Amino acid sequence: MDRIGIVLVGAGFIADAHSGAIDADPRATLIGIVDADPGRAAAFARKQGGIRHAPDLDTALQWPGVDAVILCTPNDTHAPIGLAVAAAGKHLLVEKPLATTVADARRLARAFDAADTVLVAAHTHRFYDYGRAVKQTIESGSIGRPRLVRLAILGGWIWPDWSAWVGDPDRSGGHALHNGVHLLDLATWWLGQEPTEIFARGRKQTAAELRIYDYLEMVVTYADGATAVCEMSRAHRPGSLAQRELLVAGSEGIVEQGWDGESSLVFGEAGTATLPAAGGNGFAAQLGAWLDAIGGAPPLMPVADAVRAVVLGVAVEESIVTGKPVAVTA
Amino acid sequence: MTITVALVGNGGIGTQDHQNSMYRPAFERHPGFQVVGSVDEAEVLSIALPLAERGKAVADAIRAGKHVLADKPLAATLAEALEIERLAAEHRVVVVPAHHQRFGAALRSATAAVRAGRVGLPWNVQCDFVVAGGDPAPTGELVNFGLYPVDVVRALLGLEVRRVHATGSPDLVTLLLDHDHGVTSTIVCGRVPALRDLPPGGLAVHRYRISGSHGVLAVDARKPALQVRTTNTNGPVWTGPGTVDALLDVVAAGVASGRAAIGPHDAVQAQRVIEAAQRSIEAGQPVETGE
């Protein structure tokens, strides 16, 4: 079987994780890289052993052997670039969020459905070891019906200076769309229920002048009465001590992973830091699932779930502004 | 010189008998107290009557000039708690509501550290207070032990709650609290089924994360404890004095000095939050505490 030829669009830091996943999967090959910055595209191409590179997508879509695109550009470009990929009849793995508006997310879903190509949004936490282990535990029935999810992913400021596009809500959609969707999707996937309401609070902790909320607290209510409390932070200090905590309470038991449940702890002269366990490669698992779907398997991250994540993220931003719960229907 | 105490009532919410399961043994082992059989002989009344009778009994004790240790909640309603606060001030007696969780060893240290600025200016507290097994409270667990974590968060921050949004079910509720200075806190509070190696009604999860401008304090309030594993058992063994023992220290110090480290005002403020949470659940909206 021919390998699936992939073009990466966007040579930012997340592109390395995707190219590493392609390298690890014998079913895929990286054809080339697209970046609006020709120098950055060329540098990435050289690092990959001299693959093709171009400053525009149209050129890349004409390269021979291109079957699919992985899109790692700023969030506000996902919709226009994604629609072009759909129009070219290629498959797409798009970094989360699927889009920055619900209308764009639905437009993308319709376009790929019409093209009969596979669209997957990179909600990578579904493919991380912990995400899958919690899902398997819930599905095993050992904790009964899940009623509560507590999920916190906390860290410090990781973005560049004021020029960072993530800090511009017009480009990123806000932090709820940029990172919050990871937790909103994961908790919803774990619970296997439809969300009905969002109540959220946000803070501009690192600087009062921020235009996005670097700390998010997102509370989701589900149709069966379950609750998910999701915290996403790039506001915590010290930034060297990343923490992830989870608790799922069910009718028959609980699942917990504390901040030290996966990582070791380094007590060094430079301070204290967590040392995450090596574990599996979530990006490789995600790529594998996308390739499986291209081959005809049911997608592990359905388009409808990606649209729903955008609906939830938009509702989070609205709830923070209004201070009130927001009803949601995916 | 010991303080005389009489035990009044052995009821509570549902099947609770905290008098015999908690207060009596703590008074009996505390060197500062002597349990007496007659209310008239006692300087302190330990009141653990059913909730519907409790507020009136506490008020009567205050009017009789007795100091009081009252099972939690101090009273069934905010109005009743406010009246007790007024009476206690008028009669100059010590009234200690049994908010004993704030006196856990880890939480006392945490409170001192936060108040001393060890994490800078705190801006958020997250709390899980999850009990496993035991008899479910017929009132729902919000009323039963929601005030414990609310009281601890108030103690940690020293900031009153101005707005409450509550969601979830009566047995597992999430409280989103807004305090002064834009500080927020979130409390998950409730009961899950019995879990292996935990005594019925034991705390499966009891933790706080205090995030501040200059650091984070993560508190597992089930500590300090040893982890003891044997052929047949696997569980924590609390070390040092228990939270009820520490509460009696507060009562003793309060009787001696005329001023206790916790009083009816703390019960009033906790009750405001619980009642606001009930209103929020009914309305499906955040509500002001109305202070």
Automatic annotation (TrEMBL), chain A:
Taking every annotated instance into account, which residue ranges of this chain make up the domain GFO/IDH/MocA-like oxidoreductase?
Answer: 132-255
Q: Which SUPFAM superfamilies match?
A: Glyceraldehyde-3-phosphate dehydrogenase-like, C-terminal domain, NAD(P)-binding Rossmann-fold domains
InterPro entries reported in the protein's UniProt record: Gfo/Idh/MocA-like_OxRdtase_N (IPR000683), Gfo/Idh/MocA_Oxidoreductases (IPR051450), GFO_IDH_MocA-like_dom (IPR055170), NAD(P)-bd_dom_sf (IPR036291)
Q: Which GO terms describe its molecular function?
A: nucleotide binding
Q: Which domain of life is it from?
A: Bacteria
Q: Tell me the ranges covered by the Gfo/Idh/MocA-like oxidoreductase N-terminal domain, including all copies.
A: 5-121
Task: Return the protein name.
Answer: Predicted dehydrogenase
Q: Which organism is it from?
A: Asanoa ishikariensis
UniProtKB/TrEMBL annotation, chain B:
Family statement: Belongs to the Gfo/Idh/MocA family.
Can you say what this protein is called? Predicted dehydrogenase
Bilayer-crossing regions = none
Annotated Gfo/Idh/MocA-like oxidoreductase N-terminal domain ranges read 41-98
- Give the record's keywords alphabetically: Oxidoreductase
Family annotation (InterPro entries): Gfo/Idh/MocA-like_OxRdtase_N (IPR000683), Gfo/Idh/MocA_oxidoreduct (IPR051317), GFO_IDH_MocA-like_dom (IPR055170), NAD(P)-bd_dom_sf (IPR036291)
State the organism named in the record.
Asanoa ishikariensis
The UniProt GO MF terms for this protein read: nucleotide binding; oxidoreductase activity
Domain named GFO/IDH/MocA-like oxidoreductase is located at 108-217
Identify the Gene3D superfamilies for this entry. Answer: Dihydrodipicolinate Reductase, domain 2, NAD(P)-binding Rossmann-like Domain
A Pfam family: GFO_IDH_MocA
Specify the domain of life of the species encoding this protein: Bacteria
